[in-house]
């Protein structure tokens, strides 16, 4: 339904005109998204300052059947946070709701509003000698509400779980404006359905998360970051199992990179350098975090490497000698999304399979895409310890970017068919948004999909919450 001038004015009066944008120039940064695949139109962007304002906006939108697109830091990679082109959906951006409401180191909990930037929350936890472990390449911009709504993953899932595992309670506003306050700090509460999990990972299609109570952890006393060169993913898997068996939950990251990924980073990241003396086909970035004084981290990592070298799994390895060197290793990994852009078009996938199936998946998927586009440059990298890879393929050198990207769906379906055959997921951590809505219909079993539609209909009968996303 289109918005009358009168309705626009009523909506603006809720936030005040300083926090409402109707002019295209002022709206641009809310309409573009990181991959430039989707660009929507909106008559109005609103930035509410409190939960009451969010509730008032949703009540009015619901009464008038107006679509509302929740938006946090606008770093999502599936176009979930931008409206469609009909110029009928209002963007509700949560950035102004950025207060830390409470932090309690004794209870290891923090209550933050949806608009708190992830890096700010990490720093706030550090001030009270605690760790908030969620860690993403976009952490300087993405916000807690967006992290919960996408159930973000990142580089610490191996030890701490996905965002869902870090949440004690949430405050959420339903489509009709009802506020559900479940901000408890309890670690145990079996009083019926655990409703928070409905909204976590729902990508704004069931309600708007306005605040969350999150878990904090002891800060590691020492961190060991290593960069390792090896021959193939099979050896990486065996190395992973040694590290996981020996270090348990102290193994906090296990990231896989192909040599082409390292070369892209070295070519395009200022000040980067190869941590090892010669090239290897694959690399692992591994991190151990030691929180207890009773474990000698140096001895532990030494014994892991000894065992792996003895089994001929590794070609070379280097341990970061300083925090700065560890940061440099991580920059090579975190820069991978950005540096691929400098290499032209890139067809992307965000898949997961069982950790033990990673070598087979890579073998099959690499064969399939190289057969389809012989000179393409696959750059699969990511969270191997979680079975999650960003199976990205850069265009052949000097190929036409538009022609290459026109094959996006064909290549997606080649790769996704392999994923489905291997009982994997076509979206491990980035969600569905607009990008994977059609694929979801093939990938999800029909009974689960029907249940998702029933839940959507009962929580949002007028379909105003983030229309056209996920379902
Ligand atoms: C360089 C880079 C690296 C990244 N690395 C990772 C990674 O390692 N792991 C990973 O999982 N993701 C990663 N991402 C993707 C992205 O950063 C995450 O999905 C992040 O959680 C999105 O947060 P956001 O605040 O930017 O949300 P947005 O992009 O603004 O929104 C994302 C979705 O959540 C909904 N939403 C936002 N706020 C709310 C709210 N308060 N209530 C209800 N719905 C809401 C939106 O409607 C949309 O559907 C990366 C992105 C970039 C650009």
Based on the model shown, name its key terms.
single chain; 471 residues; alpha+beta; Uridine Diphospho-n-acetylenolpyruvylglucosamine Reductase, domain 2; Uridine Diphospho-n-acetylenolpyruvylglucosamine Reductase, domain 3; Alpha-Beta Plaits; 4 domains; four-stranded mixed beta sheet; 19 strands; globular; binds flavin-adenine dinucleotide
Describe this structure in words.
This protein has 471 residues and is an alpha+beta fold. The protein folds into 4 domains: 89 residues, Uridine Diphospho-n-acetylenolpyruvylglucosamine Reductase, domain 2; 119 residues, 2-Layer Sandwich (Uridine Diphospho-n-acetylenolpyruvylglucosamine Reductase, domain 3); 112 residues, Alpha-Beta Plaits (2-Layer Sandwich), CATH 3.30.70.2190; 89 residues, Alpha-Beta Plaits, CATH 3.30.70.2740. The chain contains 17 helices and 19 strands. A hairpin with a 4-residue loop joins strand 18 and strand 19. The model has no long low-confidence stretch (mean pLDDT 96).
Condensed summary:
The chain has 471 residues and is α+β, with helices and mostly antiparallel strands. Helix content is 36%, strand content 20%. The longest helix has 15 residues, at 233-247.
